[in-house]
Amino acid sequence: MPRCAAFLGSINVGGNRLAMADLRAALVGAGFAGVETVAASGNVLLDLDDADRAGAAGEIARVVKAEFGIDSLVVVRNRASVWSAIEDNPFHGDGQDRFVHSIFLDRLPPAERFEALLAEHRSRGGERLALGPGVLYLDYVHGVGVSSLTGAFLQRRLGVRGTARNMTSLKRILAKMDF
């Protein structure tokens, strides 16, 4: 069965503490197979066929809310999508891996909202942005902590939710998906 990655937002940030052993146990208890966590930031690998992948994000979000009281965006991607989030990111290889992010979106934002964000940000910072299939590519250039492009800011401007991973994390996750 194919390996997939579930990217959970709001895990072990902003006071939402969750031990990965507890998350694994809850997901196994909910019937998920091949559950493995990568790092302590809401990256879960699981075995899902295409039919199961469609409903997995909603089911994982339901389990996390019911078991831990955390309202988390969950985005599930197959190996090809994770590979694409690295290789198709126009800033990968140009910027530093820890500053170059792929933000997995729950849906694509309207083009006019993305264009408005680009226009608004042009004079504000050195960050670089691009839109891909189901993902927002972002190079924080000088660091995430000094940027005004926070998750909440991007959500307000684009009207979509997302959860970000840097290139270092994505490469680690992809390597584990290959086993």
Topology:
Layout: E1 3-8, H1 20-29, E2 33-37, E3 43-47, H2 50-68, E4 74-78, H3 79-87, E5 100-105, H4 111-121, E6 128-132, E7 135-139, H5 151-158, E8 162-166, H6 167-177
Antiparallel strand pairs: 1-3, 1-4, 2-3, 5-7, 5-8, 6-7
Helix pairs in contact: 3-6
Mind explaining what this structure looks like?
A hairpin with a 5-residue loop joins strand 2 (33-37) and strand 3. The chain is built from 6 helices and 8 strands, in the order βαββαβαβαββαβα. It has 2 domains: 3-79, Alpha-Beta Plaits; 81-177. The chain has helices at 20-29, 50-68, 79-87, 111-121, 151-158, 167-177, and strands spanning 3-8, 33-37, 43-47, 74-78, 100-105, 128-132, 135-139, 162-166. 38% of the residues lie in helices and 23% in strands. It is of the alpha+beta class. The strands form 2 sheets. It has a 4-stranded antiparallel sheet with strand order 2-3-1-4, with helices on both faces. The radius of gyration is 16 Å and the shape is globular. It comes from Tsuneonella litorea. It holds the Pfam family DUF1697. InterPro entries: DUF1697 (IPR012545).
